[in-house]
Each structure stands twice: as structure tokens, then as C-alpha cells.
Amino acid sequence: MSESLTVVLVHGAFAESSSWTGVLANLHARGVAAIATPNQLRSVTTDADNVRRAVESVGGPVLLVGHSYGGAVITEAAVGADAVKGLVYVAAFAPEHGETALGLTGQFPGSTLGETVRAIPLGDGTNDLIVDRELFPNQFAGDVPLADAQIAAATQRAIRDFALNEPQPAETSAWKTLPSWFVYGTGDKNIPAEGLRFMAERAGSLKTVEIPDASHSVMVSHPDAVADLIVGALAYLA
């Protein structure tokens, strides 16, 4: 591939684009074109449409990177998007058609996320969900310095519960037709490592990096390892 790829990073639930700061700094220092695009966290369908527009705005080939729920979003956004050449899943969901993020979370034992989530009614029968700010550091970012985890708790974006319960729309998931890479921590309390391993193996991950004891916020606590995997993916696609 002669044209250089741009890395497009998509954050997940209970996070926002600044969660990619360390990864972006590493990539930019290596001369890699990379951006973090906002994720509205309303539904897989609409969030994927927004990411697809971000991909189109780049005007060239793209490597999509998703964290957590952002994995479901990039899986959908890549369908029919010729500019997308590969997918990197960072402690992320890689759903099959009809699967939901919530269903995949509970498919293997170990997640304690449900005990920490608080609902904010939206008045239309759905709710916005946040992680209790006092519980967030331990649940979401146990290996991140406490002060930083507390800031992340205070700046987290709520996700609409419908998004976590929406069946993956596309009949053929993008990871079936595109190369994929996975990185996650064995200390993830949101998505059990066993579930992440299952999704990586099912997708035929070209390289899977398991970081011992790393939390769900693996891109914050281990930005260099995440950036290394992304750079490796770019080299493969070059």
C-alpha cells in the first residue's frame, strides 16, 4: 500500500477522547498520522455512522482503533468503508452479528461493572449510564495513578443503555474480512480477559498482546504497548 495510513482512535463507554492522549503522543513522536474522534455513545448504528464520516473526512486509507464499546462501533463503521484497511481492538468488543456488548460482558464470569453503574433516566424509557465516580478508579482504572483515575471519573461520558443492548447490525462483521489485532489486560474488571481472549481468537487476530494485571484503561496505563501494536499493524498494512 503506497499511501500512508491515518490512525483513527475511537473511545468507549465511560471515557472520552483524552483517554488516547498517551497513545497519540507516542504515535505522533514516531511520525504517525493519528486522530481521536468523538464517540457520542448513543447507539451502535448512529455512533458507527459518525465514525464512518470521520473516516471519510481523512481522505485516505485508515486503521481504525477502538476501545471497549468503541470496538463494537469500529466493527460496524468498517463495513462498506473501503478506506478502512484494518482494525485494532483495545480491551474492546468484537461482536458477531446479533450480539450485544452487554451480552458479551456476561458471557464469561468476572465482570463487576454492573455493580458500579448508575442510571440517569432520559425520559424516553432509556437511561444514560455512568460509573459511580467514587468506584470508577478501582473498577475502570486500577493501574492508573489515583489522581488521574479520579479525573477520568469526573470527565467520563455517559452511554445510553440502548447502545449496550443493541444487537450488532451488520450481517458480516468487519473482522471477518479485515485483518485485526488485539491488546488487553488480564486485570480487566469490565470485560473479563477470558471474553477478550475468546473474541481475539474468533476474529483470527494477527497478534494478541495480553498485559499482565492491566486494567480496562490499558491505553492509559500502557500507552507505549498499545502504540507498539498499532505501529506493528501499520507495518503489516504498508
UniProtKB/TrEMBL annotation:
Keyword Hydrolase included in the entry's annotation: yes
Classification via SUPFAM superfamilies: alpha/beta-Hydrolases
Residue ranges annotated for the AB hydrolase-1 domain, each copy included: 7-228
Keyword Protein transport part of the UniProt annotation: no
InterPro entries according to UniProt: AB_hydrolase_1 (IPR000073), AB_hydrolase_fold (IPR029058), Sec-Metab_Biosynth_Hydrolase (IPR052897)
Coiled-coil residue spans: none
Any single Pfam family the record assigns to this protein: Abhydrolase_6
Keywords: Hydrolase
One GO molecular-function entry: hydrolase activity
Gene3D superfamilies tied to this protein: alpha/beta hydrolase
Protein name: Alpha/beta hydrolase
